[in-house]
Amino acid sequence: MIVLMVVALVAVLAVDMGSRLQLQIQRTMNLKDNNQAYWYALGAEAFARKSIQTLVTESPDVISLDQPWAQEFTYPLESGGLTANLEDLQACFNLNAILSGASGGNGNGGSRNASNNQTEAMEAFHTMLLALNIDELDAYTANTVRDSLADWVDEDDFPRSYGAEDSEYESREFPYLAANGPLASTSELRIINGVSPKWIRNLLPLVCVIPDNTDLKINVNTLDEEDMPLLVGLTGLDTQQASSLISGRPQGGWEKREDFLNDPAITALNLSNSRLDWFQVKTEYFMLHTKTQYNKATFKLSTVFHVDTDNGVSIVNREFGGTY
């Protein structure tokens, strides 16, 4: 009887040890596969960096969608593959630039704080929201999102007319505080007062966050038809005029920003100099979206590149995971 019990105990221990060994082997294989997928992504990143350097060397004054960089890149690899897509970060509204541009009238009708002034970027953002033409996104909601975004970014604790500061966010079921500083990611937009999951997916393709940058610079050569609401917000054109301007863009894009600004549809608007400064025909910031696969492992990487005439192409931010 004792011998049978010992044999049974040894059998149980052997099965347990075998199971643990198999688990450790599988865990090691998963780590190996993930590491390999990670290094594939870094390889794509290095290739993209070199490609951007070549692009700005060969075409320093004009960046457009007609150039090869705008095409999605797919490359098969041993036991996997990668897909990479380079995006112009100056073909979207930089959320951190919401306070840029000249200030208009006081949003609170004589508020005690100067931060309540509505900037031109805030006006453009508001117009862009309405140009999305979504039933749930009416004028009041657009006012709320505009002012709340400005309150989220500015450094003070005084809410604008339709905005929100700490007192609003602290009263929620799961309280938090306003950042009172630049956004780190577009995903941060989801927790700003007034933003709704019903329409945020329609807004996200039009906005972006450039790390440590509060300028609003738009490359008019890299806007496509889906960016029409953005152009409407920046210029004040109606939707038909904005679509016609994008679709009628010269092959290879406008060679100079003055060519775009001298378009009759733009000159008729009599835009202020600060608004005219928003428009460019070249790009300083790119984002690379990379998705790699190795065996059963999948890795996603988003990299922000900055183009500097003196220092070349540098990496300013990496974001792991996310959606692509």
Class from helix and strand fractions: alpha+beta
* Broad shape: globular
Order of helices and strands: HEEEEEHHHHEEHHHHHEEEE
What is the CA-atom radius of gyration, in angstroms?
25 Å
- The CATH class of the largest domain turns out to be Mainly Alpha
Tally of individual helices: 10
Structure characterization notes:
The protein has 2 domains: 2-89 and 284-320, Pantoate--beta-alanine Ligase, Chain: A,domain 2, CATH 3.30.1300; 93-280, EpsJ-like (Ribonucleotide Reductase Protein R1, domain 1), CATH 1.10.40. The radius of gyration is 25 Å and the shape is globular. The chain contains 10 helices and 11 strands. A 5-stranded antiparallel beta sheet has the order 1-2-9-10-11, covered by helices on one side. It has a two-stranded parallel ribbon with strand order 3-6. The model is unreliable at 105-114 (pLDDT under 50). A hairpin with a 2-residue loop joins β9 and β10. The protein has 324 residues and is of the alpha+beta class. The chain is 38% helix and 19% strand.
What features would you highlight for this structure?
2 domains, alpha+beta, 38% helix, Ribonucleotide Reductase Protein R1, domain 1, Pantoate--beta-alanine Ligase, Chain: A,domain 2, 324 residues, 11 strands, globular
Can you give me a brief rundown of this structure?
The protein is an alpha+beta fold. The protein has 10 helices and 11 strands. The strands form 4 sheets. The protein has a 5-stranded antiparallel sheet, with helices on one face. Strands 3-6 form a two-stranded parallel sheet. It has a two-stranded antiparallel sheet with strand order 4-5.
